[in-house]
Design goal:
It is an enzyme of class 1 (oxidoreductase). The protein is an all-alpha fold. It has one domain.
């Protein structure tokens, strides 16, 4: 479990790093010591059937709730649908690294399909910004995973942090559009057209309550919800000097093992289903790092710890970007 080792009060700026992010150098060291890890690179053959199964299950659930009361819809969305839609969100994360098929086109098409129960088009845009997060981890103006200065200055107490966590999916989605907008292309248009057409068709056939379940599953699952703890656990600094943290708890089974986050950043070409093998093969590189066993506890610590907030991230100037890093 991570032990807080920070200043006594909430920081007023980011933690500025004077060195490159740690994953590129650690990857080189691990591959030198354990070259057999390269055998783990490549697509997960089970990704396609797993995604199809979750999409069909979520649509079936939405259909079953088409005549339900809103209270029941909200309850099912929070305790069940949220896990399915978050699973699809993290499937899209896998697909952004081309980890279902060797051909990027097939991954992109599957991502658009996986996007359907989420309710809002995000698959193609997510890939653009997420790959920047790997290429430019912590780099000012490039890594849109890092909160803005406005967020850091406004989110200064327990109440504001609670609201921020509740709405963190909105901040996560909208932040790039304000700080680093990218011109949409043909694939964004395709993603939007397919998604909006699918939404309209679903509403026409099964009604607003059924569609409302899908939307609620997305947004309640991205806020004050155990599985959304990974947004905070991955890179918020709870132990000074460490900027990436892994989670080794049971929710990895529903989250494409995104909790193995140090391992993922070290080896983004290894699918989530095999990341545990990285730690097994090279334990000497991971056992000394702070880690988590509970995403729920991470959310609680973030809200209640007066030393932690949106500024609790490592930031670096652009000269530390690593453009030649593997995607």
């Amino acid at each position: 479990m991570v032990v807080a080792d920070l200043q006594a009060t909430l920081a007023s700026d980011f933690y500025w790093a004077d060195a490159q992010e740690p994953h590129l150098s650690r990857r080189r060291e691990i591959l030198t010591a354990h070259p057999e890890i390269k055998n783990l690179f490549g697509p997960d053959l089970w990704a396609f059937p797993k995604i199809v199964a979750v999409v069909l299950l979520q649509f079936w659930t939405a259909y079953c709730l088409k005549d339900a009361k809103w209270g029941a819809i909200l309850a099912v969305a929070y305790f069940f649908g949220s896990f399915l839609n978050h699973n699809l969100f993290l499937a899209i994360h896998e697909l952004s690294h081309n980890l279902a098929f060797s051909t990027p086109l097939y991954n992109r098409l599957l991502g658009i399909f996986a996007n359907l129960p989420v309710g809002v088009p995000m698959s193609v845009t997510f890939q653009k910004y997420h790959l920047d997060h790997h290429l430019y981890q912590g780099v000012e103006g490039m890594d849109m995973d890092i909160p803005s200065y406005t967020e850091g200055r406004l989110i200064r107490n327990t109440l504001m942090k609670t609201l921020w966590v509740l709405l963190q999916l909105f901040f996560y989605a909208l932040r790039p559009l304000f700080l680093n907008p990218k011109n949409p292309g043909l694939w964004e248009a395709t993603n939007s057209l397919v998604q909006i057409s699918g939404d309209v068709a679903w509403i026409y056939m099964f009604g607003w309550r059924s569609f409302g379940y899908l939307i609620l599953s997305t947004f309640v699952g991205g806020g004050l919800h155990p599985i959304a703890g990974h947004f905070i656990s991955e890179h918020y600094v709870f132990q000074k000097g460490q900027e990436t943290y892994s989670y080794y708890g049971p929710l990895n089974l529903l989250a494409w093992s995104v909790g193995f986050h140090n391992e993922h950043h070290d080896f983004p070409r290894i699918p989530g289903s095999k990341l545990w093998k990285v730690k097994e093969i090279a334990p000497e590189y991971y056992e000394g790092l702070a880690c988590y066993r509970s995403w729920t506890q991470v959310i609680y610590m973030y809200i209640m710890d007066s030393t932690v907030g949106p500024f609790s991230r490592m930031m670096r100037k652009s000269q530390f970007s690593t453009e030649k890093k593997s995607k």
